[in-house]
Amino acid sequence: MLSRHAWREEAAVGSLMTCLDRSVGRPTPVTDEAPRVLGRTARPFTQWTAEHAGAFRH
Question: What is the pTM of this model?
């Protein structure tokens, strides 16, 4: 039997997986969120990783 908290976690994971499954093959919509929130254009992920690589090295 699942505890009350484990049930919530399992339900949340199930809901997330359903949402992700429905998004397969659908393009992600382009929004203006990043520039609006940051006050500048977003950087490419490759640039961000290069700038922050040291934080992930031990």
Answer: 0.42
